[in-house]
Design brief:
single chain, alpha/beta, 7-stranded mixed beta sheet, 7 strands
């Protein structure tokens, strides 16, 4: 998993509330077990018409937001089913940070496991960031995980909270496998000792 330390990028405004995981990645795309390739189908039913043509008014189809790395969203983002394909699709598109007033718990935790930083702020703070994102590609935000601060294009600094363990994992690019491999020496030592003491196992 890539390390998340400081992100300076375009923020896309998506003020819709209750964006569920089926809106993020429709169930028809859940056949794969690969984390790559789902970005093209992120928000598929909102991005494309029935003929597969892009809907120009959808935020991520607009030229200024095609390379967005931050998503400023409405309340209760990621609700619905627990599909991990939702953060897979978000990450594959290139979005590394999602900001909202609240997230569904499973989606929230799945984000951290896939290198995405979900940030919970007050409605007033989200409104400030939403307005900044609406300025387009020239208004870039900075998300600094180490200092736990978001800086708008105008220099407004908004602090945010994040769990210390989850912060450590993102800063060091550690998913569950990476955390396990940190203990590799201890695991190998235990297995060698167990093989000597209980060779019949």
């Amino acid at each position: 998993m890539d390390k998340f330390q400081k992100l300076h990028g375009i923020a896309a405004p998506m003020p819709l509330v209750n964006i569920d995981t089926d809106m993020i990645i429709p169930k028809v795309f859940l056949k794969t077990i690969k984390r790559s390739g789902l970005g093209v189908n992120l928000f598929d039913e909102m991005r494309y018409d029935r003929q597969g043509n892009e809907i120009p008014d959808f935020v991520l189809n607009k030229p200024q937001y095609r390379n967005a790395e931050i998503l400023v969203a409405g309340d209760n983002f990621g609700c619905g089913s627990s599909r991990e394909h939702a953060p897979w699709a978000i990450a594959d598109f290139g979005i590394k940070c999602v900001i909202s007033t609240s997230f569904a718990d499973i989606f929230f935790n799945n984000c951290f496991k896939n290198g995405i930083l979900p940030i919970v702020l007050t409605q007033e703070q989200v409104d400030i960031l939403m307005a900044d994102a609406e300025k387009g590609a020239n208004a870039r935000m900075t998300v600094d995980l180490e200092s736990q601060e978001i800086t708008t294009s105008d220099g407004v600094v908004i602090p945010f909270e994040v769990d210390a363990f989850k912060k450590h994992c993102l800063l060091n690019g550690l998913d569950d496998i990476g955390l396990t491999l940190e203990k590799q020496a201890s695991i190998e030592s235990f297995e060698a000792k167990a093989a000597t003491q209980r060779p019949w196992v």
